[in-house]
Specification:
By secondary structure, the protein is of the alpha/beta class. The protein is built from twelve helices and 15 strands. Strands 12-11-7-10-9-8-15 form a seven-stranded mixed β-sheet. The chain has a six-stranded parallel β-sheet with strand order 3-2-1-4-5-6, with helices on both faces.
Length: about 350
């Protein structure tokens, strides 16, 4: 067994740089050999800044690097299929950001290649590695709140992303891209989803209509067990980043998440105030690190992926059903998404 895993990162956007920086300095059993980005000047600068030996201008070159054992895919969702399949066929272990793909057809093709090649694929849903979410799952398994019957999941960004990202042909749209985490949380806490009903629109940022996306949505969820849930998605939580989940059971409830970033209250004549979580990196910094460490450890020790392609496909099906529900203004059963 190798003591260190030689890794290459594809995609140096905001999140890609986070993973690459973690791999470079905070994952002891990983050796970041190379980074790749279509913006070659970005790849070169990042490699120089972090003393990474190699940099490439496309994913083909980094995948064909014989020194690399594993590929971390943080590219645009529309590129996941091509990169993951090529990496798997070249014998690389793969870590892929969510969502797995834009379409169920592409996702299943990816899963089929992983199965036929025997390649290792671990999907990214960092909330599973967050201390709060992990602790909540443990409490549920211990029966602390009795039988869970209702889930409320809230995901609110402080502002919209760039319009080019919002384009559903690239990101899948807000419900698919942003809601993927919430739908994975639904499955983690409550089991498989039977049907969804979505409402929403471009309410805070009318320019979202130009690319065919929305900025606010509410998704009602019915589980196979008959239990229910509610997913609230928003791009205009102006005050800061708001990620919370509530699980209500027959004996009590759990709430994951928080508003106050710094444990400080400012108490003056005008009132009592505190700061808020600025954005996703401040909220999930440790979860992202724990997740990539888990990937490296699983590959080196030949363990099973913590989150498999099947989990990502299940979340994608819910996302697609919820998107379809919004467009057609009706309840959509997840099993009809084929």
């Amino acid at each position: 067994m190798k003591s260190k895993l030689n890794v290459g990162v594809i995609g140096l956007g905001r999140l890609g740089q986070v993973y690459a920086a973690d791999l470079a300095h905070l994952v002891p059993n990983a050796n970041l050999v190379a980074v790749a980005d279509l913006k070659t000047e970005l790849a070169q600068k990042f490699a120089n800044d972090y003393q990474i030996p190699k940099w490439y201008g496309n994913h083909h070159e980094i995948i064909n690097d014989k020194e690399i054992d594993a590929i971390v895919v943080i590219s645009s969702t529309s590129a996941h299929k091509e990169i993951v399949i090529e990496a798997a066929k070249n014998g690389k272990a793969v870590f892929c950001e969510k969502p797995i793909s834009l379409t169920l057809e592409n996702a299943k093709e990816m899963a089929d290649v992983i199965k036929s090649t025997g390649a290792f694929l671990q999907m990214a849903f960092q909330r599973r590695f967050d201390r709060g979410y992990a602790a909540a799952l443990k409490k549920i398994d211990e029966g602390v709140i009795g039988e869970p019957v209702l889930l409320v999941s809230i995901s609110r960004d402080p502002s919209r992303p760039p319009l080019e990202f919002c384009d559903p042909t690239k990101s899948g749209g807000m419900i698919a891209d942003m809601g993927a985490h919430d739908f994975d949380v639904c499955r983690m806490f409550m089991g498989e989803v039977k049907s969804v009903y979505s409402v929403g629109g471009a309410l805070a940022y009318p320019e979202m209509k130009e690319v065919g996306d929305i900025d606010n949505a509410i998704v009602s969820v019915t589980f196979e067990s008959g239990k229910v849930g509610h997913v609230n998605l928003s791009r205009n939580a102006i005050f800061g980043y708001d990620i919370r989940t509530e699980i209500w059971g027959t004996k009590g409830s759990l709430q994951v998440g928080y508003f106050r970033e710094t444990p400080l209250l400012v108490m003056v004549k005008e009132g009592i105030t505190h700061d808020v979580v600025p954005h996703f990196m401040e909220r999930f910094e440790l979860a992202y690190l724990a997740q990539i460490r888990n990937f490296v450890d699983n590959v080196l020790h030949e363990k099973e992926p913590a989150i498999k392609a099947e989990d990502a496909i299940a979340a994608l099906k819910i996302s697609l059903a919820a998107t379809k529900s919004h467009k057609e203004n009706r309840v959509v059963e997840v099993k009809t998404i084929v």
